[in-house]
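Hi team,

Below is the intake form for Rh family, C glycoprotein a from Seriola lalandi dorsalis. Please confirm the fields before the structure is written into the shared record.

FORM ID: S-0412
PROTEIN: Rh family, C glycoprotein a
ORGANISM: Seriola lalandi dorsalis
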Amino acid sequence: MGSCCECMKNFFGRQKNTNVRVSLPAVCFVWQIAMIILFGVFIRYDEESDARKWIEHKRDHNITSDIENDFYFRYPSFQDVHVMIFVGFGYLMTFLKRYSFGGVGFNFLIASFGLQWALLMQGWFHSLDPNTGKIYIGVESLINADFCCAGSLIAYGALLGKVSPVQLLVVTLFGITLFAVEEFIILDLLHCRDAGGSMVIHAFGGYYGLAISWVLYRPNLHQSKRLDGSVYHSDLFAMIGTLFLWMFWPSFNSAITDHGDGQHRAAINTYIALASSVLTTVAISSMSQKRGKLDMVHIQNATLAGGVAMGTAAEFMITPYGSLIVGFCCGIISTFGYLFVSPFLEKYLKLQDTCGVHNLHALPGMLGGFVGAIVAAAATESVYSAQGLINTFDFEGEFANRSVGTQGGFQAAGTCVAIAFGLVGGAIVGFILRFPIWGDPADDNCFDDEVYWEVPEDEETIPPVLEYNNHMIHKHQDISESNFSVEQS
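The structure came back. Fields below:
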């Protein structure tokens, strides 16, 4: 028994090898070829994107204009969500001083693979035609695939700088799969409403990443502490990601809601909640410093918490002032999370959360799920009207007799399902990633682009030929004066 334990210790504790020249191309080629085969077998255009079926659809539904194709209604929202996934999430992760290539580049990799796998996984669970065995995709499928990718990108935030690109592809493969299953349980079996994904995207993705990070705990991560931080320009780039996310979040929460008042209301509620969270974030950030200075970490992240928490209740009649209250509270809670909760989790629970996804996604997502449950349970016919309740909560078919109180209970249960899938699934994936075959960096080599990227030489390391004016004098005291220097007057 002792020799077996010793072998396991030697296996898991052997020296890291970050050479991914074989493993990364192999995974990319094999998985992409698999996608081609699976798409060839299963994926087809739906009736609104197929040349022959669209003509038949127009004739059968007495449609006279191509402008009534769902593409023209959904595509603007798809564009916004797509920008959030690739630009917003990507640039939000560029705050580390030497990991901007990894933040944007690996975000690009995760989303590009994830959206393909998501079209298949969500298709098998939601839109597989039992007669033909085919999955029919349209513009709404693309939006849902981006949503599916968001869960894995959130998880990446907790692992930023500590894992290899091969590990990230594994995280995405399992993350998309788990997402499709929990989404099916929550939205189809429990019949929950979660248009903006507080439960199925943020709570799941946040706790999925946190569980993986907990299992992959690095006791000597302090050896990379010199790189675990930001510089002036890296925080500025990250703020670009924040602004893209903040501006397009109303589209994210309203993209797949019902035509008409539901989508309109979701955009309004999200817009208001986001604005409210900015002010409370600034207030708490300023209060936390002796001289009232602001911390850019708080502004980059906690200002988005209102949009996360409004995901579930966005299409409900929460009222505009209710949206303000949600944003107000979440700005405070998220900022306090960065000030106190993250240090506590790392010190006592051994949970190293690089981007603080617990404070931006996991906790606000959980709160958003429970806010949605409360608002659903409090819905009345006098506020919504009888038909309004049916439209908002889809009380049709086998759910036609469900009461709003029951709906509220199922909404709360859906939040718990999302958290459970994230924690249990993340722990299992974390143990898989502990095998020393994935090319992850050593403890003293984390948060550094040079491990996996060809990094150009910094301009600062190249001695200037000319020293032009007096603004250079104090910056280059160590450089001997050039014969070509301009004399100061």
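SUMMARY LINE: The chain has two domains: 17-444, 459-488.

Thanks, M.
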